[in-house]
C-alpha cells in the first residue's frame, strides 16, 4: 500500500513546482514560501483531526520531537532554496538538480538506517547522477556567467537539505502517526519561514502580491500538503531508499506541465538525461 502513497506524493509534488512557479513570477520567493506554509499547516492539522491522531500528542517523546524539529528545519531550508532557484532558473533545470537528493538519501539511509544498497540501486544512482548532469547543460556562453548560474547554487542547497529531511523525517515518524508527525514538523517550517521573512525585510512585499499569484501560492500549498501526507505515510511503512526515488518521479509530471504551461522544451541531450533519471529511479524498485 505504501507504494501507492509514494506515487501519490510524486504526482502532487510535480504539480507543486508548476503552481509555485506561477505564484512567484512577481512575488518574492521567501514571502511566497511563508504564505504557502500556512496553507500546508492548516491542511496538515485538518488531516490530523480527520484521522483522530490528535489524541497521540501527549504520547510523543522527546526524541521524536527532536527529529521532527530537525526535519522541519531541513525542510524549511530546502523550500527556501528551492523556490529561490525556481524564481531564478528554468523548471526543467532546477527540478533535476533538486531530485538528485535521491543519491545522497540512499547513501545516508545505508549508513544511518542500515538499508541495503543492492546492485540495482547502485546502477540507479549512477544513471540518476549522469542524467542530472545532462539535464543542466549550458546552451550558450551567456548562461555561463556566474549571475546566471545562481539558480544552481540554490538548487544544490535544496537537494542537500531535502536528503536530510528524508532521513530525519524517517527517524522522527518511527513512533508517531504520520499525519501528526507531518503537522508537527510543518509548524517548525512555518516558524522558520516567517523568521526568514522578518530577517530579510520581506514583510512589506506581502501587501503587493497580485491576487492571481496569491491564488497559485494557495494552490501550491494544497498540493504540497497532499504530497507530504502521502510521502510520510509511505515513508512510515516503506524503506526510505525506495520511497524517496518513487517520490522523485515527480520530475515527469513537472516536465510535462512545464511544457504545457511555460512552453519549456527539452533538448535531445536533456531528454536523454530525463530518460536516464527515470530508468535509474525505476531500477531502484527492483
Automatic annotation (TrEMBL):
Keyword Flavoprotein: no
Family annotation (InterPro entries): EamA_dom, EmrE-like
SUPFAM superfamilies assigned: Multidrug resistance efflux transporter EmrE
Transmembrane regions listed in the UniProt entry: 30-52, 64-86, 106-130, 151-171, 183-201, 213-234, 240-262
Keywords (A to Z) from UniProt: Membrane, Transmembrane, Transmembrane helix
Source species, domain of life: Bacteria
Pfam families per UniProt: EamA
Record flagged with keyword ATP-binding: no
Gene Ontology CC: membrane
Family (UniProt): Belongs to the EamA transporter family.
Protein's UniProt name: Multidrug DMT transporter permease
Organism: Blautia pseudococcoides
